[in-house]
Amino acid sequence: MVGQYDENVLPDMLPVYYTRLFPQNLFCRWLSCGNSPQPLSNRELSFTLADDVYLRYLSINNQKEFFTLLQKKCPHKLDIGAVYNTKPSVGRHDAVVLARELVFDIDLTDYDEVRTCCQEAKVCDKCWKFMVVACEIINAALKDDFGFQSILWVFSGRRGIHCWISDYEARTLDSPGRAAVADYLCLIMGGENQSKKVHLGSDNLHSSIRRALIVIDKYFDDIVQDQEFLSTSDRLKSFLKMIPDEALRKQVQENLERMPTSSIDRWKCFVNNYNQFCKENLHGMRKMKYLIEEIKIQYCYPRLDVNVTKGFNHLLKSPFSIHPKTGKVSVVFKPDNAKDIKLDEIPTIYTLLDDSSSDNVQHQTNMRTAVKNFQELVFSLEKAEAVRRKTEANTSLEF
Amino acid sequence: MEFKIKRKSVKTVTTGSLVDVYPHDLQMYKIPPTDNISLQEFESLALERLTLLRCLATATTLKGLRIFSEEWTDFVISDLKNQGLKYYAKLCEKSGCGTLQPDLEARRKDHIAHFILRLAYCRTEELRRWFISRELELFKMRFMTMKTDAIDSFFKINNLCYTNISDDEKNELIKYLRESTFYHNNQNIENFKFYKVKFYEVLDLVKSRKVYLRGGYAYIPHKDFISVLSAQFRMLLRQSLAVACHHLGEIEQDERLVSLLKGLHQSYSGNDFISDTKVTVPIESLDFLSAKSFPLCMKQLHEHLRSAHHLKHGGRLQYGLYLKGIGVTLEDSLRFWREEFTKIMELDKFEKQYAYNIRYNYGKEGSKKNYTPFNCLKIINTNVGPGECHGCPYRHCDSGILKNKLKGYGLDAQAVNDVVDMAKKGHYQIACSKYFDAVNKTDLGLGINHPNQFFEESQKLLKGDIKIEVKKEEKSNIVKTESNNIEDMDFDEITEWKE
Ligand code: SF4
Ligand SMILES: [Zn+2]
């Protein structure tokens, strides 16, 4: 368990972790590929030190320098920024951002209005399922729709996941392009004052939405049971607000209130109600054509922090860095395995460095798997980069 | 770009060659004109095009019409006719390849006028943005009114060759194409030809999920080529404005031109609500001021901040810049936010995480730009996420909630209904103006296009500035509307492609 460890020992443990366990070599290779054709040194790194001193515009020329820098500064937090046209430094305000991985940040705090098991910084295996759904949906869209290959998924260290796309096309995408990708993936919209946040209209459903719904359906019953969306009168109230038609809403309310509190049964009853209502009101169903889908999406679809994706030089926590509050490692995982992740099996710096810890063996294994996942991605990225450079050289010869 | 200005116009081009130069009503304006024209013609062409572009802006912002909708296009065309710009009306109504003298004349004017305005609008980033947005609207509108044969010849003339995907590929994908392509129910997708372009060539379609994507390619039918074209047109304009700006020096050797070009946009620049000379507003008076002089979007943020002692990023930005605009000093601003935030967090955390942003708003950090408060257009079009309460309440509130809010503020039933009705119809700014009248007890019917304008107008009323000159007041507002759009129309923003 994390709680029994003391943040104060971090300064002693971090140098050991960085030397023995942090995959420095892979890390530098991954970044180099992501920089190309710019040199590694043009990438901004940023460190947060023990007493919250914040260093920006750091850069490294090679792995050796990286090692020295880690030893010297021993950062509590390690973030990665953009690739500039020159070596980044504090004084250079004329530096231009040339590239940056396309990134996604999904955080469970953005699910606070739907999750009922935890709030704010808390997270448990129940709400982790939201992340599993998010990862599967986004990963499929990035691969199938946008054709991206080098997609890295990382546990954020506490209550969310990050995604880094290193394909050349993604790295060099301009900001309108990033904004368009983010908007394409964003279905939940609306603030505090809007109860229904998903509007799918009444035309055909876009293929990407259909695919997302298939993923949601795999987990939906589970999540409904875990979260009990409909079990208390407050939750029921906010659920009912999503039904735009008054007649249907009344009907559903009466029926559900009469039932036992099990959310899954209530949900099924609602679906029957809705279907019945559709049959009886063939007209006037236009605005509710996709009501079931809309509600499922509002409950389960990924909630992206779009500003992180749209921004070109947002700093984002590095893979394999340690979360200063939880001590957890930002492990790399495969999207297919997201569903098997158990939060307390995620290695922490404390258990990894403490042979006597009961979790030590298992955490070591999981750490090795995470490094292997990272390695696989870096290898295939390097291959793709080589191919790209070769074709580029060929085409430039031709002209 | 060369313009040789003569006192008297000399027609050097004959009809025969005009057909060659201007084969089509719709142009990409790739080559600058080399005609000799008189200063007089230069001036009138410039003013006429300016009228045309303003007319587009009016249709969207003042009339509140949905861009590219039928009503929108109708308004533009009839307004052009009313203003005596028949040739533009005709170019916009149905672009084609006619070869009659008036057709050719119109194209020549269109061509030259576009290039004149490039010179007038290349000087600052804001002017460029405004110009590009309007020219793009114009281009899209004209493309949309074109018949198929006119489109075909447009492609030929501009050397745009794309090959459609094979029938096999189409049949294999037809299910997805049908699901994901945006088309009208009365059209038969089986008859469409589909083309494959990279997804980043049609960002507006990607953004609104109106195209099928697979492996990085977008599959677009013929009609959606407007997306590819306007993306190219935008790029072209952007680059050529930069070039034009570089060469301004040479052109401005001619005194007459300098005053003309400068005058053109000066008649056009208005208040951007960067406050420096204005009175300062003490933060102690904000509660009082928010009752009558804050538009709902700001009142809502103010109240949320007071009750929850926190605002998310979008809210801090929208409200912070607004406060700056009404005359709250940086020192006061820091104090104001600090007092609220520290009710729920340590002072240390506030100073570390939030104070920077406030100084940033005032241009004291980061890129040190003096940021201007957001106008309505920007606020209305902003994305509001879960847990956030910025944006424009007429757009981002359920009508039930909006109704209760307004009732809670003591508006009478009639006024509440009027406002909510307008909001439901999508006329957010008109709803806002009705709210203005209700809380300030007048019937000015202002065109609200900036929250800071709302504030200033309300203050004027309270201090008794406005007497009987209501009409004049309205007029000056129209000018404001357009000029304020300049600075906030985001250069990189993709205007949504609604049909
Ligand atoms: S119309 Fe403008 S001023 Fe009025 S509430 Fe909306 S954004 Fe604010
Ligand atoms: Zn939980």
UniProtKB/TrEMBL annotation, chain A:
It comes from the Eukaryota. One of its GO terms (biological process) is DNA replication, synthesis of primer. Keywords: DNA replication, DNA-directed RNA polymerase, Metal-binding, Nucleotidyltransferase, Primosome, Transcription, Transferase, Zinc. The keyword Iron-sulfur does not apply. The keyword Plastid does not apply. GO terms for molecular function: DNA-directed RNA polymerase activity; metal ion binding. It is an enzyme of class 2 (transferase). Pfam families: DNA_primase_S. Its EC number is 2.7.7.-. GO terms for cellular component: alpha DNA polymerase:primase complex. Belongs to the eukaryotic-type primase small subunit family. NCBIfam families: primase_sml. This is DNA primase. It comes from Vanessa tameamea (Kamehameha butterfly). The lineage of its organism: Eukaryota, Metazoa, Ecdysozoa, Arthropoda, Hexapoda.
From TrEMBL, chain B:
[4Fe-4S] cluster binds at residues 297, 376, 392, 432. Keywords: 4Fe-4S, DNA replication, DNA-binding, Iron, Iron-sulfur, Metal-binding, Primosome. Residues 289-455 form the DNA primase large subunit C-terminal domain. Pfam families: DNA_primase_lrg, DNA_primase_lrg_N. One of its GO terms (cellular component) is alpha DNA polymerase:primase complex. Its cofactor is [4Fe-4S] cluster. The keyword Hydrolase does not apply. It comes from the Eukaryota. The keyword Iron applies. GO terms for biological process: DNA replication initiation; DNA replication, synthesis of primer. Binds 1 [4Fe-4S] cluster. PANTHER family: DNA PRIMASE LARGE SUBUNIT (PTHR10537). DNA primase is the polymerase that synthesizes small RNA primers for the Okazaki fragments made during discontinuous DNA replication. Belongs to the eukaryotic-type primase large subunit family. This is DNA primase large subunit.
